[in-house]
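Re: the request from the purification team.
They wanted to know what the chain is likely to look like in 3D before they choose a buffer screen. I agreed to run a prediction and write the result into the notebook, where they can find it.
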Amino acid sequence: MAKSPLTPVDDVIERLLAEVQCLVGTELISVNQARGRILAQAVTSPINVPLLSNSAMDGYAVNTADVVKGGVLSVSDRIPAGTVGKTLQPGTAARIFTGAPIPQGANAVVIQEDTAEVDAGVEIHEVPRYEENIRRAGQDIVAGTQVLPSGHRLRPQDLGLVSSVGCADVWVFKKLKVAVMSTGDELIEPPATLQPGQIYNSNQYTLLALIDSLGMQSIDLGLVGDSPQATDAALRQGADMADCIVSTGGVSVGEEDHVKAAVERLGVLDIWRLAIKPGKPLAFGRVASKPFFGLPGNPVSTFVTFMMIARPYLLKSQGLSNIALPESYGAATFKVSAGSRREYLRVRLSYDEAGICRVESFENQGSGVMSSVCWATGLAQVEPGQTIEVGDQLKVHIFTNE
């Protein structure tokens, strides 16, 4: 029986992202609870920031027409931050502090280091330029300006920005619920003692943490035995509890690989077997209308296929606009020839004395060598049939801490 052809990686990603829709609703939450959440409505400023033109320095508000070097001006007002001073009298200066509104009639601030107090008032040692040391109203943000778009993930600095325009609450997408299950009778949970033929269930911990780091809600379905009944029951539970399901193992062609058949019984299998290394036996379909990713069981394959295939799909499902991993380019310090599949190598970026970015490869690129992922800072992309020589430029997908 002829094998079905492997699906190119870019074709899979394009197809998945073309069909995915946001799967979650929205909620209004406090800004101080919004770090890492995704905006469901753009934030528009109702005010100018700063609201009024104000002093950028401690010093004296003056009208430049009244100022000469070495001249003395009487002090007609004192304006601390948080108060509004009187209109500046001609031929005078107003003592002013950082952040205080500029009084009517003033058009510059002389910093206090360029002045000296004298009996008659203040002596000016340097003549300021027009509007020097003044932060004009709306210099940062003009009223009516969109400060953050819908689909943006909120970082700590973004929370400061929305607070600066008077927002105490923001509309965000609810957290996507993702159920995670690991299949295989050989798996046991740490710290139980390993028996011959057993391995620890490490993939579950990787996936739960990855999903949580994306700002989603992970649901742990635990270990699933190698039987059609157990696989069906776990998939039904995941479809009932979550918006998406992610499974590891059981999607190959072995007699004990039951996930592919279970998905076909309970829903539909759209994609199976990718032209990717590591990670060829990857499946995508739906279980009771819920999107399903069946990732391969080898730890590195699980990580790579999640990062490159499942991650962008899940992020778009939660309403995020910028779903791609950051990319960088660097010169290879190694030689490699790819086979018939696109390869993702675990690599580390560094810079030499000349400032040139170098890409170093982990020595053992086996799909079970999880230490390679922990060592690496990204995945170098090598196309099918491509030969990389030392010095060739490589595209690297950079790992991020969401």
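For the purification team: The CA atoms of residues 187 and 201 lie 5 Å apart.
Please add any questions underneath this entry.
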